[in-house]
Write a structure and sequence with these properties.
Elements lengths: L2 H4 L3 H10 L2 H14 L3 H17 L4 H12 L6 H17 L3 H14 L3 H17 L3 H14 L4 H13 L3 H14 L3 H5 L1
Helix pairs in contact: 3-4, 4-5, 5-6, 6-7, 7-8, 8-9, 9-10, 10-11
Length: 191
């Protein structure tokens, strides 16, 4: 049988486990992924090779390369891009590659389907941008959250603090007014 057919079988993984040849397994799966007919299968196999490199070979650099290769596949569907982006984002965090992670988080925020997931990714990206000394980027990310939900108090509060820090007074006043309109006065709370 062809290698492509064998990769559909759990026996190949079991064989690698018995032989403790995870490097060979990862290389074989990556090679099969590069030659797979469908984009979805290429991404799936490259991601499997990356996971093996990371989890079984303690090779984060090799895993990053494979995840990046999987993400770069032309025609990959949103589901595949989302899966690989999430894993690569976590890996970038583990290997202290914040700039790459920030770029990926911005991409991931577009891919995430749920509002809560998008808010979480945008908030993480905004905090990371601020920590990297990119306040304009952080402000834009907080604004994306506010644009999606004008009642997002944590995003408004973070934006207020950051606007004050960078001394953008006109924007600060506008954001404070938005925030004030969302906070009921003590008299409003009693009624």
């Amino acid at each position: 049988p062809e290698l492509r057919d064998m990769l559909n079988r759990p026996e190949l993984r079991q064989l690698a486990q018995r032989a403790t040849n995870w490097a060979g397994y990862a290389d074989g799966v990556a090679s099969a992924g590069r030659n797979a007919a469908s984009v979805a299968r290429r991404v799936e196999l490259l991601a499997e090779a990356a996971r093996t490199r990371l989890d079984l070979l303690d090779d984060p650099s090799g895993a990053v390369d494979l995840y990046q290769e999987a993400l770069a596949q032309d025609g990959a569907g949103e589901r595949e891009q989302l899966m690989v982006s999430r894993r690569l984002s976590e890996l970038y965090s583990r290997v202290d590659r914040p700039r790459e992670r920030l770029d990926l988080l911005e991409r991931l925020a577009v891919l995430e389907q749920g509002d809560a997931a998008q808010r979480g990714v945008l908030g993480t990206a905004a905090r990371l941008a601020e920590s990297l000394g990119e306040p304009a980027r952080a402000l834009a990310l907080w604004q994306r959250r506010i644009d999606a939900d004008p009642t997002d108090l944590p995003a408004l509060d973070a934006r207020i603090v950051l606007l004050e820090t960078v001394q953008r007074w006109d924007d600060l006043i506008t954001t404070l007014e938005l925030r004030a309109n969302l906070t009921p006065s003590p008299a409003q709370k009693r009624t």
